[in-house]
Write the C-alpha cells for this entry.
Amino acid sequence: GIGRLENLIELDCSYTLFGGSFQGSVFKNKSQLRYLVMSGLSLGSSIPREIGELPNLEEFYIDSSDLTGDLSFIESMTEWSPIRKMWLDYNPGLSGDIPSAIGQLVNLQSFS
C-alpha cells in the first residue's frame, strides 16, 4: 500500500471514495512528501500528529473531509517547517482554538 512508497513527493486522493479513519502510521516514512491533497473525503477522524512531523510538507489541503477533533497536529510542526498552504475549511466537526504554535510557521502564506 501507500505506506511502502517512501519516495512519494505528491499524494492527491481528493474527492475519491476513500473513507474511514485517518491513519497516521501511513505517513511515518514519507520524508519526501511535499504536497498532500485529501479534500472532499469522508474521514470522520482527526488529523494525526504524523502530518505535522512531515519535514518537507509545503502544501496540505484537507478541506471538506468530515474532520473531527482539534488542530493539535500543528503543535508538532517546527518553525523550520516549509509549509506554505494549509486549508482545513468546511470541516464543522473541528473544534477548539487554533494552537499558538501556528505563529512559529514562518513560511505559512495561506491558512483557511
